[in-house]
């Protein structure tokens, strides 16, 4: 089994379970603004694309109002980490591993407030508005590698979507599918993790 010194994590569907909370906030926003109900395809796209890009594709005149209302509803919810996430982050850092976050979140929309209590474990965090092209383009991961002087072959990206997998492939780093958060169970990946704690087996002994 290949081991790594560096681990990059997606946020939604990987670190945090945000699906029900986000969908509920979307539906409340649509109802409040008296808009047409979102289709299943639109909701699914929301979880693949940066939020502002998702809103741009909707037939909504007041796009800023949509973002504001959604965020207000969303912030009323409670952060729900997947079981084992805080524990594996602590364990990986204890073993000397380097950790980072790459997400299609925006600093001025979702931000990092939701995982503030585990933020200390990450050496760097890269969001969609930190790069010219967000996932599935490789820019986000490449920025992490360059800023931290990490080697491609020593880095593993953990995510739950095809966009995550494609981003890792384009950046020439290995990818692990987070089965605990994945929605498309047909998505293929050479490395498939049933739970976060399985990452311990992929961590180099001396970091």
User: What is the approximate shape?
Assistant: elongated
Give a count of the beta strands, DSSP E runs of length 2 or more: 6
The largest sheet has its strands arranged as: 3-2-1-4-5-6
Taken in chain order, the helices and strands follow as: EHHHHHEEHEHEE
> Which range best describes the helical content: under 10%, 10-25%, 25-40%, 40-55%, 55-70% or over 70%?
25-40%
Instruction: Determine the number of helices (DSSP H or I, runs of at least 4 residues).
Output: 7
Task: Summarize model confidence as the mean pLDDT.
Answer: 93
Rg over alpha carbons: 17 Å
CATH class of the largest domain: Alpha Beta
Total of domains:
2
Low-confidence stretches: none
Distance between the termini: 15 Å
Could you please say which CATH topology of the largest domain applies here?
A: Rossmann fold
The percentage of residues in β strands lies in: 5-15%
Largest sheet: 6 strands, parallel
Q: So, the CATH homologous superfamily of the largest domain? A: HAD superfamily/HAD-like
Structural class: alpha/beta
The CATH level-2 architecture of the largest domain is identified as: 3-Layer(aba) Sandwich
